[in-house]
């Protein structure tokens, strides 16, 4: 990336100054400075006759700050002084960027004793210290269930790292719900490294990472996608014309590893309207074409222009290319834009100045082209018009379509000059009709009182970093302006970039007394390694009478970083699974962020940080110097000097002098540099102060051209691994996402294992250190092998569905081979017999073959599919060539997962027993009966023994229900139980990192999912905004759960408050709550089926949310419940009310309700419940009764009564540790966890005996590494188990099973210290 360079300064400073001349003062400083940052100002005092005192003060609203105060001895000085801009005042610290900007005054005072020699003040804009916060994700696209990884780094304007603490980092979902928050995050050497797991049902769309309340942000997209492995390139002419009879398009498909793709290519032409409306279907058949690729993966289309039916309003035509791979049918597409031109030839001026200097040659270039394409060896004309007198020059364009010209300006009498570039002269009507676009450029004379000028010679080359560059300056000076004794001239310059003065220098040039003062000199500039946008060079000369002459030039500079980062792989190409090294080099002490992504991801969306994107981010600035100078609030409105008045005019014309002037003079050069100047020198062109009809003439300019350099390196495979190839199973989208320190030597290497994907990996690294930020060039690694097989899988299939499984074999060997491809047998797949199918084929060089199996998935979940292809020994001819067998790499095996979804309704019947084995042996017998409608092969039985009542839930946190997803209520079953489990483990001091991470994961992802079902009014319903209104019960459930979870994960309090406010709107005058909204399945809400039960439920939620004691909403709800006639309520309401009054410590109401509940539930709890299923509402009722017993820590708990409730609840569990539905699962786990925390049991070893008819008997003891238990210190025991099996087929349950019996016997062995939730003995072999 290049940038202009500014050299300010050539000052004529004679050695012998006449004493009669007045002293001159110049103070140059930036128009914009930044708080807490070092800036520079430059002073130039000349022809001093005595010592003076200089004081420069920054006058701010709060106080004045002295920047410079020093004595200057005669005859003067030229120096640049560094000063510190004051910090933000405390009240500004938290203000927004716009509010914290302040326009202040810079005041300059020069005096001698008590005499003021010079005084002036000008406006300066003080802005907050500019910093850029980069938020980088490992990729731009994610699938639901993946983990988003991102890093944050804060840089100042000089790319120095700011190691600050981030108060807030938010993650917002597509509906702008805040789903995660990190507070007071500290960086590691300036880099923050965070991640967030997306829910498997995460909302699709654009997510936002917001830092410091949108001070910086980045977005990523969550969608269900399949990566493309094919890149489609479209080559087209830069433009077409309606006069063209035809034009050609070339489309080529290649894989991400660079090889050509064989297939079919379709193209469709679209108008602008069709493209922007994404209407790809209504294009006429005349605008469509199809062809097949050649051996290079390319095809060429010849398009008749008239078939496009172009109109005068069409300025672009869009071509959409779509490629379908042969064999697999995999598709990819690309769209290109072709300009439609009416004027097919243009001439434009480039690199020309808006003014000329009489006596110095005026140089420039013309570019002759057709929509950017150069026209070579063409004659063009340049017409110079001076006072209506034209001069015509002819030129022949070079290979770049350019013409260089140099014009003698000696005869240009300081008038306006026009330059016209054209392709024809006079009345050449033939060429006129060709539609040539001429170019016109106006030149203004640059003002100098004495016709003295300086001109810096431009350079077309980009200046490299850290190298000296010679700069040439031409001059023409009026000798009468100099002292008669002067033997040399001192030239001064300033280097300015980013609106700041970087450094200064001077150059002394000898002159002869009677020499014609016209010539040139040169000096060297050292271009540093700063990352700069524009560096400009202004040259000015100060004569003895105060006249200043000057020039400005710009130079392109290469992109430079102070922290030079380099990276390279140990080889350019490797085979899958091989070892490779990545070498890093950066400034000593750097911490480097390394990222490597599959090219397939970047083809879909490329978010790679590059020097260009960083350049745009760092130097994006709305501060623009307009035609009249600075923005209005920063303009000083200095009046221009007036031309001498004619005799007879007595009006004080200086009062009417304008403050702006569009003429080219020195003062405007300072403005264009964003510099301000306080001076008594002559830098403005005098104007007529009585003439009011000023004519504003616009100056034209061209943007600099930045060249992009792309290098290509030849790739040579380096691996010679001769071991037997392993199956390829590892196919990540992001390969490397690491933070790597390079140490004091500034070097590091990563030893890596290459993934199994055949592709190209794009690797980028940025590093931070005290020296600053650095960004490496892109490094690529091609992963390839000449013979391989690839699987094309659908995203998912349904169990029982038959689909086509396709495997394509690629041969990039030089010889022909005979391959045999097999699909590995697996019980999860049923392969359809195909007697006529051939799975052996000849493949010659650069050929592919796709093999197809018709497969039916028979098992749910992720199923691994393995396909192998072998180059066999064969003596057969392949395409008249002998098939050979490679010496190595003759076998390739690929294993990829396929998601299999259920085709019907899965049903499970669970039987539970709560066995307390103390000193005696206890046993339990179960009857196992499969339903008559069971699908063939789906019957299974599982037996487990777990040492704690919370164990089943802990082992199945993600699957407590048969279908935990699908609506806003079912989702909560994966959310709420984790709250109680975490609290239980914390209370019993048994929380280990594994279970904590699992629970927190489900809380975080459940929170994300639940926000999908929120309405704008704060309520929730089963299907969110698809429902007409929210549901009262579900809203209370969500508010209750969010409130309980807020102590474990980030929950936006506004979501809870919104829900409570919505519930308040639906509270009746009686204090009861109105039922609003519907549920898809009313069984999901448990026993809540009327106004009274709903009120009791909402009241319990409000109490658990810990609302203020004087909250009228809660008081009114309690009043509603107290007015109820207890005998007229059902069991569920009584149980819920008993829990509510336990929480509110109304002991009288609590005891009254518990007494009635004990009588009414006695029969149900003592009956044989194993033979019948209990309703969800009954389970929830018993759970609330248990909660009423264990939720008040101030009351003694009747352990016998509570134990009976626990026994009964334990027998109602499903196979996953949950219960019948959501509410009974949530409330039961809450009750069981509180009970278990109140009554911790001594852990013992168990011996279990399991017998299934006469098939098998197993005796097992299972121990695991221990963690802290309630009664033991942390210690470790080795993993050990014993198992005796008496028959070979243990616990095999076949389709014929209709009714059988399972006998379980447990006995204690002694105390144990392993985590009880891991003690398990299962069917068949031990797990």
TrEMBL record:
Classification via Gene3D superfamilies: 1.50.10.20, 2.20.130.20, 2.60.120.1540, 2.60.40.1930, 2.60.40.1940, Immunoglobulins
Q: Which residues form the Alpha-2-macroglobulin bait region domain?
A: 454-604
SMART domains xref list: A2M (SM01360), A2M_N_2 (SM01359), Thiol-ester_cl (SM01419)
Instruction: Give the residues annotated as coiled coil.
Output: none
Q: What span is annotated as the signal peptide, if there is one?
A: 1-19
Q: Which Pfam families match?
A: A2M, A2M_BRD, MG2, MG3, MG4, TED_complement
Q: Which residues form the Alpha-2-macroglobulin domain?
A: 734-823
Q: Which InterPro entries match?
A: A2M/Complement_sys (IPR050473), A2M_N_BRD (IPR011625), A2M_TED (IPR041813), Alpha-macroglob_thiol-ester_cl (IPR047565), Alpha-macroglobulin_TED (IPR011626), Ig-like_fold (IPR013783), Ig_E-set (IPR014756), Macroglobln_a2 (IPR001599)
Query: Gene Ontology terms, cellular component aspect?
Result: extracellular space
Where in or outside the cell?
A: Secreted
* GO MF, one example: serine-type endopeptidase inhibitor activity
Keywords for the protein's UniProt record, in alphabetical order: Disulfide bond, Glycoprotein, Protease inhibitor, Secreted, Serine protease inhibitor, Signal
Q: Which family does it belong to?
A: Belongs to the protease inhibitor I39 (alpha-2-macroglobulin) family.
> Any idea what this protein is called?
Alpha-2-macroglobulin-like protein 1
What is the species of this protein?
Answer: Cairina moschata
């Amino acid at each position: 990336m290049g940038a202009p360079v500014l050299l300010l300064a050539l000052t004529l400073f004679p050695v012998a100054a006449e004493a009669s001349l007045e002293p001159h003062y110049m103070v140059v400083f930036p128009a914009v400075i930044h708080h807490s940052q070092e800036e520079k100002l430059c002073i130039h005092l000349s022809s001093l006759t005595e010592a003076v005192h200089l004081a420069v003060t920054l006058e701010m609203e709060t106080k004045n700050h002295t920047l410079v105060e020093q004595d200057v001895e005669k005859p003067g000085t030229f120096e640049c002084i560094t000063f510190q801009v004051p910090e933000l005042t405390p009240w500004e610290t938290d203000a927004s960027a716009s509010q914290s900007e302040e326009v202040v005054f810079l005041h300059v005072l020069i005096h001698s004793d008590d005499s003021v020699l010079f005084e002036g003040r000008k406006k300066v804009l003080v802005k907050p210290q500019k910093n850029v916060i980069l938020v980088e994700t490992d990729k731009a696209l994610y699938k639901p269930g993946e983990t988003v990884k991102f890093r944050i780094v804060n840089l100042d304007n000089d790319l120095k790292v700011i190691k600050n603490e981030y108060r807030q980092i938010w993650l917002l979902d597509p509906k702008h719900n805040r789903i995660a928050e990190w507070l007071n995050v500290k960086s590691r050497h300036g880099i923050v490294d965070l991640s967030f797991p997306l829910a498997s049902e995460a909302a699709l769309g654009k997510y936002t990472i917001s830092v410091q309340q949108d001070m910086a942000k980045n977005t990523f997209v969550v969608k269900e996608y399949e990566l493309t492995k094919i890149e489609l390139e479209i080559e087209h002419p830069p433009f077409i014309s309606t006069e063209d009879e035809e034009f050609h398009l070339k489309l080529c498909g290649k894989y991400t590893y660079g090889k050509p793709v064989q297939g079919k290519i379709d193209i469709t032409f679209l108008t602008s309207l069709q493209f922007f409306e994404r209407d790809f279907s209504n294009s006429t058949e005349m605008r469509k074409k199809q062809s097949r690729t050649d051996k290079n993966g390319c095809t060429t289309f010849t398009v008749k222009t008239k078939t496009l039916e172009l109109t005068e309003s069409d300025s672009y035509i869009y071509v959409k290319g779509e490629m379908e791979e042969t064999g697999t049918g995999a598709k990819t597409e690309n769209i290109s834009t072709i300009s439609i031109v009416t004027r097919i030839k243009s001439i434009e001026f480039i690199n020309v100045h808006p003014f000329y200097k009489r006596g110095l040659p005026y140089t420039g270039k013309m570019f002759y082209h057709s929509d950017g394409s150069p026209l070579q060896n063409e004659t063009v004309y340049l017409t110079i018009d001076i006072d209506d007198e034209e001069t015509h020059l002819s030129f022949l364009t070079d290979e770049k379509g350019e013409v260089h010209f140099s014009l003698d300006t000696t005869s240009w009498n300081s008038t306006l000059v026009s330059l016209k570039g054209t392709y024809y002269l006079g009345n050449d009507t033939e060429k006129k009709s060709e539609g040539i676009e001429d170019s016109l450029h106006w030149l203004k004379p640059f003002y100098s009182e004495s016709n003295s000028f300086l001109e810096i010679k431009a350079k077309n080359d980009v200046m490299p970093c850290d190298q000296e560059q010679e700069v040439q300056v031409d001059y023409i000076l009026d000798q009468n302006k100099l002292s008669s004794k002067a033997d040399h001239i001192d030239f001064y310059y300033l280097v300015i970039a980013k609106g700041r003065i970087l450094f200064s220098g001077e150059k002394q040039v000898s002159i002869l007394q009677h020499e014609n003062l016209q010539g040139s000199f040169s000096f060297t500039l050292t271009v540093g390694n700063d990352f700069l946008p524009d560096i400009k060079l202004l040259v000015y000369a100060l004569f003895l009478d105060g006249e200043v002459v000057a020039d400005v030039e710009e130079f392109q500079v290469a992109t430079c970083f102070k922290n030079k980062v380099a990276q390279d792989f140990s080889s350019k190409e490797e085979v899958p699974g091989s070892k490779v090294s990545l070498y890093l080099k950066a400034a000593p002490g750097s911490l480097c962020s390394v990222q490597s992504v599959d090219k397939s991801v970047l083809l879909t969306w490329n978010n790679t940080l590059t020097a260009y994107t960083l350049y745009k981010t760092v130097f994006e600035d709305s501060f623009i110097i307009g035609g009249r100078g600075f923005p209005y609030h920063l303009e000083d409105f200095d009046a221009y000097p007036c031309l001498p008045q004619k005799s007879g005019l007595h009006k004080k014309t200086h009062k009417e002098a304008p403050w702006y002037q569009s003429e080219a003079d020195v003062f405007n050069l300072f403005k264009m540099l964003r510099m301000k100047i306080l001076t008594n020198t002559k830098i403005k062109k005098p104007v007529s102060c009585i003439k009011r009809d000023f004519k504003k003439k616009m100056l034209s300019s061209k943007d600099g051209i930045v060249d992009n350099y792309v290098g290509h390196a030849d790739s040579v495979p380096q691996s010679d691994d001769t071991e037997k190839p392993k199956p390829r199973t590892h196919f990540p989208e992001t390969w490397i996402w690491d933070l790597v320190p390079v140490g004091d030597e500034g070097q590091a290497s990563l030893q890596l294992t290459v993934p199994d994907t055949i592709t190209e990996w794009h690797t980028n690294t940025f590093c931070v250190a005290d020296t600053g930020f650095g960004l490496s060039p892109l490094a690529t690694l091609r992963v390839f092998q000449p013979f391989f097989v690839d699987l094309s899988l659908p995203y998912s299939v349904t169990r029982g569905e038959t689909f086509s499984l396709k495997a394509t074999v690629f041969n990039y060997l030089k010889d022909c081979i005979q391959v045999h491809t097999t699909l590995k047998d697996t019980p999860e797949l049923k392969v359809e017999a195909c007697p006529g199918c051939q799975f052996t084929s000849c493949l010659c060089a650069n050929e592919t073959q796709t093999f197809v199996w018709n497969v039916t998935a028979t098992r749910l979940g992720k199923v691994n599919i393995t396909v192998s292809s072998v180059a066999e020994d064969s003596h057969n001819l392949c395409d008249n060539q002998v098939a050979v067998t490679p010496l190595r790499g003759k076998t390739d095996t690929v294993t990829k997962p396929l998601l299999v979804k259920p085709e019907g309704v899965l049903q499970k019947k669970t039987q539970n027993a709560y066995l307390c084995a103390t000193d005696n042996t206890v046993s339990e017998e179960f009857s196992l009966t499969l339903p008559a409608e069971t699908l063939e092969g789906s019957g299974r039985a599982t037996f487990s023994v777990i040492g704690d009542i919370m164990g089943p839930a802990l082992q199945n946190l993600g699957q407590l229900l048969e279908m935990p997803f699908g609506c806003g209520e079912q989702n909560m079953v994966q959310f709420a139980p984790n709250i109680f489990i975490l609290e239980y483990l914390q209370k019993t001091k048994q929380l280990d990192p594994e279970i904590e991470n699992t629970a927190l994961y489900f809380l975080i992802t459940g929170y994300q999912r639940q926000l999908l079902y929120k309405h704008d009014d704060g309520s929730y319903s089963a299907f969110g905004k698809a429902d007409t209104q929210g549901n009262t019960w579900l809203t209370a459930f969500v508010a209750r759960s969010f409130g309980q979870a807020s102590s474990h994960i980030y929950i936006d309090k506004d979501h809870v408050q919104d829900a409570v406010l919505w519930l308040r709107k639906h509270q009746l005058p009686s204090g009861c709550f109105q039922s609003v909204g519907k549920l898809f399945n009313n069984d999901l809400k448990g026993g809540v089926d009327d106004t009274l039960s709903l009120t009791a439920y909402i009241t319990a939620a409000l109490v658990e949310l810990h609302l203020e004691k004087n909250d009228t909403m809660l008081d009114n709800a309690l009043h509603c419940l107290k007015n109820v006639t207890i005998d007229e309520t059902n069991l569920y309401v009584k149980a819920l009310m008993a829990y509510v009054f336990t929480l509110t410590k109304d002991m009288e109401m609590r005891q009254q309700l518990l007494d009635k509940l004990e009588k009414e539930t006695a029969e149900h709890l003592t009956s044989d419940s194993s033979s019948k299923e209990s309703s969800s509402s009954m389970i929830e009722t018993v759970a609330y009764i248990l909660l009423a017993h264990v939720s008040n820590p101030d009351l003694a708990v009747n352990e016998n009564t509570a134990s009976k409730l626990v026994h009964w609840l334990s027998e109602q569990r499903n196979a996953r540790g949950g219960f019948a539905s959501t509410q009974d699962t949530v409330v039961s786990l809450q009750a069981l966890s509180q009970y278990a925390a109140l009554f911790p049991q001594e852990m013992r070893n168990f011996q279990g005996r399991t017998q299934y008819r006469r098939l098998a008997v197993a005796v097992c003891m299972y121990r695991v590494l221990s963690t802290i238990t309630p009664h033991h210190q942390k210690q470790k025991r080795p993993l050990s188990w014993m198992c005796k099996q008496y028959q070979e087929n243990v616990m095999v349950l076949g389709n014929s099973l209709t009714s059988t019996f399972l006998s379980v016997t447990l006995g204690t062995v002694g105390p144990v210290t392993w985590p009880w939730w891991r003690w398990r003995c299962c069917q068949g072999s031990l797990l």
